[in-house]
Each structure stands twice: as structure tokens, then as C-alpha cells.
Design a protein that fits this description.
Layout lengths: L1 H18 L6 H13 L13 H18 L5 H11 L1 E5 L6 E5 L6 H18 L2 H14 L23 H18 L2 H15 L4 E2 L4 E2 L16 H18 L2 H18 L12 H4 L7 H16 L2 H17 L1 E2 L4 E2 L12 H17 L1
Antiparallel strand pairs: 1-2, 3-4, 5-6
Helix pairs in contact: 2-14, 3-5, 3-14, 5-6, 5-7, 6-7, 7-8, 7-9, 9-10, 9-12, 12-13, 12-14, 13-14
Length: 363
């Protein structure tokens, strides 16, 4: 009888092992992550071939990878970035002189938002208070960008203050609510509501086509026809957070309309692969980062709604990335998710990696 039971259990385990489908994203996801880590500058902690704000997003991809794989070996990498890059030398726009920025505070409020978001995620992953403390320092500086011009909102750039746009304001709003979740301090919820209420009446969400415009002109009117994937992504995350906070379905309905317009028609190829409207943007130092940011926040929207269309879209794009946009020599991804692979680049690699990570979690 014991022998029969043993044989039965062996057959059962064999059947389970044979029936367990291997995740198709694992190998290239791991290769891409390792390549990303190898591209860091050992002195500055920042990623080679990626800009300052891009590096915050590369770090966010590393943090997300560590979260979904439970790979604690990446914790020292996160800490090394933190310790080395919080006092960072940057060049002026014309390249004529350099200065240092401390605590991730520089002349661009959206840059600050990306770093604040990264350190909130690092805190959530590791529990180390210093990361959350840094995010609060950064956010405090972001509040200095608020003005009554155009009725409110923060500027994109300081010294001098210039241009109120979607990305800076939605990052500010999203950082505020995430800090509120982490600290339960009412001041962050107040900022979330204040900036959300202002943004919703600016017209930067174009409800004719359900796309987020880039910003407003000097006349405080929204510009048109500058639709970038990352603007859509951060906006849908803000709207989803507003729904969760206030239980107001109008926010969620708007988020879903923006998501559907983006993945169903506006910013996809005929085969349903995410792209930028303008190829010059798609291949630019900034633009190569945009698509991964959209997918990150579409993944959040999927968590909230469980809308299967978002899951299918993420997996479809990730399949295209590992099939058409992977370079076996550099073991990295490029900026054209539909292929072919184009040039080694830390920002482009991390952007595509974000999509593959999300697909890995959904498979």
C-alpha cells in the first residue's frame, strides 16, 4: 500500500511539473536587468547613456524587478545609487559650466518628481526610512513651483519659472497621494486634491479625443497635438488614485477612456504595439523612456479595474519586445518595440524592461 501511495505521489508531482508552463519572459527579463545594472557609472551611481531624470526611471524599473522577483541582491544597488547621486554634478544647458544639485533638487520640477517617486518605491520595497525622508524633501521643493498664474498648478522649470504642463503637475499630484499613503499626513492629501482640482479644469485632458495634452501656453490655454505616451500614463494613474481616494467613478471612467484611446487607436501601430506619434521623439534621449512609464501606470490601472484589455495589451507588447526588439549581443532591448532593435541605450532598455516585467507578473 505504501509503495502504491509513493508511486501515486511521484506521478502527481511529475504531472504538475510537466503541466507547469514556463514564463516566456523570464530569461530575457533577467538578461535585460543584469545589463542595466552593468551600465551604471561606479563613481556617480547614475546610468551611462541615460539622462538625469531617465536614471530615476531606470532605478524604478530595478526596484520593480526586485519586488516581483523578490531579489534582495539588488538592495545594495539601490542604496549605492542613493548614496552617490544625492550630490550630483550637472552641466548648464549650454554646457559651459557645471554645478551640483543636492537631494535630487534641480531646475526642473518634473525631474524632481521622478526621483521622489523612485525613492517612495524604494521605501516600499526595503522599508528604509531614509528613502521616504528623501522623497519628502524633494516634494517640499516641488511645492515652491506652485503659483496662482493660470489659476494654480506648478511650473515645469524654475530660474526663471516657466511653462505649466501635464507631466510636472501629474507627477506632483501622484507623488502627493503616494506620500499620503506612506505617511498618512493630511498635508499630502491636501496637495493632491488642490492640484487635481486645478488640473481637471485646465483643458489639458482633451475630451474630444481623450488624450492628455503636453501643457498650456502663455494665454493659459492648452496646446494641441503633442501627445506623448508618458503623459497618458501618469494621468491615468492620478485619476485611478482619485477614484480610490474619493470613490468617484467619474475619475475611473475618464482614466479608462484615456487608456482605451491610447492603446486602441492613438498611440499604437496597426498591430497594436505602443509607439510615439513622432519618430524623432521616439528615438530622442527623453522619448525612449516614455513608453515604459505608460505601461507601468497601465499596469496600475489594471490592478484597479481588472480590465482584461489592459492585461492583453501589456502581454502583446512584451511578446513583441522579446521577439522583435531584443539584441542577443548586448542582451538588451531597444526603443522600437515592434522592431528592429536600434542601438544600445540604458533608458530605452529600461523602458522596454518595464513592459516585460509587467507581462511577467501577469503571465
Amino acid at each position: 500500500m505504501k509503495k502504491q501511495i509513493s508511486i501515486f505521489l511521484s506521478l502527481l508531482l511529475f504531472a504538475f511539473a510537466c503541466g507547469k508552463e514556463e514564463n516566456p519572459f523570464t530569461e530575457k527579463m533577467n538578461d535585460s536587468l543584469q545589463r542595466s545594472v552593468s551600465w551604471r557609472n561606479d563613481t556617480t551611481g547614475i546610468w551611462k547613456s541615460a539622462g538625469w531624470w531617465n536614471s530615476a526611471n531606470v532605478l524604478t524599473a530595478v526596484i520593480r524587478y526586485a519586488e516581483v522577483t523578490q531579489d534582495k541582491s539588488l538592495y545594495p544597488v539601490i542604496d549605492d545609487v542613493f548614496e552617490k547621486s544625492k550630490h550630483y554634478q550637472v552641466k548648464s544647458e549650454d554646457g559651459t559650466h557645471s554645478h551640483y544639485c543636492d537631494n535630487y533638487i534641480n531646475d526642473y520640477y518634473d525631474d524632481e518628481g521622478w526621483w521622489a517617486f523612485a525613492w517612495i518605491e524604494a521605501f516600499k520595497l526595503t522599508g528604509q526610512q531614509k528613502y521616504l525622508d528623501m522623497a519628502t524633501v524633494i516634494f517640499e521643493d516641488m511645492t515652491t513651483g506652485w503659483s496662482d498664474e493660470c489659476g494654480g498648478g506648478i511650473f515645469w522649470k524654475k530660474n526663471p519659472l516657466h511653462y505649466k504642463n501635464s507631466i510636472a503637475n501629474n507627477l506632483f499630484t501622484l507623488t502627493a497621494i503616494r506620500l499620503y499613503h506612506a505617511t498618512q499626513k493630511p498635508v499630502y492629501l491636501d496637495w493632491f486634491k488642490k492640484n487635481l482640482d486645478w488640473y481637471m479644469q485646465t483643458g489639458m485632458i482633451n475630451t474630444d479625443i481623450y488624450q492628455v495634452e503636453d501643457g498650456t501656453g502663455k494665454d493659459c490655454q492648452p496646446n494641441r497635438n503633442s501627445h506623448y505616451t508618458y503623459n497618458q500614463g501618469v494621468a491615468i494613474a492620478v485619476l485611478a488614485e482619485a477614484y480610490l481616494q474619493y470613490n468617484d467613478k467619474s475619475y475611473l471612467e475618464l482614466a479608462e477612456k484615456i487608456a482605451q484611446a491610447t492603446i486602441g487607436e492613438r498611440l499604437v501601430t496597426e498591430n497594436g504595439i505602443l509607439r510615439e506619434m513622432n519618430d524623432k521623439v521616439a528615438t530622442s534621449n527623453d522619448g525612449v523612456q516614455f513608453k515604459g512609464i505608460f505601461i507601468r501606470h497601465l499596469g496600475f490601472l489594471y490592478e484597479v479595474t481588472k480590465n482584461d484589455a489592459y492585461k492583453k495589451f501589456i502581454i502583446h507588447n512584451a511578446n513583441s519586445i522579446i521577439t522583435n526588439d531584443y539584441d542577443p549581443v548586448s542582451q538588451s532591448f531597444g526603443c522600437y518595440w515592434y522592431g528592429p532593435f536600434r542601438a544600445e541605450n540604458a533608458a530605452a532598455n529600461s523602458s522596454a524592461l518595464e513592459c516585460v516585467i509587467e507581462a511577467f507578473t501577469l503571465h
